[in-house]
Amino acid sequence: MKSLLPLVMAVTLLSACQRDPAAAPATEPQTTATATPMAEAPAPTPAADDTAAPAGPVSQASFLGYGDMKLGSTVEEARAAWGGELNGAPMEGTTCHYLWPKWITRPADFAFMMEDGRFVRYDVGTDKETAPGGGKVGMSVEELQKLYGGALKGAPHKYTQGGQYLSMDAGDVAPTRLVFEVDAAGKVTSWRVGLSPQVEYVEGCS
Question: In this structure, are residues 138 and 123 in contact, taking their beta carbons and an 8 Å threshold?
């Protein structure tokens, strides 16, 4: 009997080694997940700035002059500051004349007064320009008063019955003055900014 024991154990071990692998306990299949790259998140859109000024053209009119053209500068300096072509020339024997951009068809709409070789005033007769402080051609007296309050002083118009001039000094800003011309219906027909006494010339250079 003892001689059969080693033989039985050898057969048992050989059977275990030859067992069908399919009979082995099932194991959880191992899967290698491939990471899918995440789409890059779009940059956040900045919040609208409610305090920003509305878009639109900015007026170059000021109590100091118009854009880079400074009241009191020489004609040559004013021309250079404008940087473009200006029409107009003084008549023989006169000391006062107007210059205006070449694209202006009616000088009464927009022009620069020159006197004694200096840029002394600019005149506006169109609603496309805005005066210092916000006034414009076409506004009513009431609208002007809301903008300027008691700073505007009135005087009767020299030629228009029922019309008037509404004007104010620039104060510490410059030695200049803003004058609105108002018709009998109470509407602004033109305005000008300039040095004294030229800003008070009712007939311009005439």
Answer: no
Tell me if the pTM is above 0.85: no
Which residues, given as ranges, of the chain have pLDDT below 70? 1-58
Structure token pair of residue 48: 């609208």
pLDDT tens-digit readout, 116-126: 999 999 999 99
SS (H, E, C) 11-54: HHHHHHHCCCHHHCCCCCCCCCCCCCCCCCCCCCCCCCCCCCCC
The neighbour count for residue 177, using CB atoms within 10 Å, is 20
Q: 192 and 202 in contact (C-beta within 8 Å)?
A: no
Place of tokens 């008691």: 150
Residue type, 73: S
Q: What gap in Å lies between CA 90 and CA 94, rounded to an integer? A: 7
Residue ranges in the chain assigned as alpha helix (H): 5-17, 75-82, 141-148
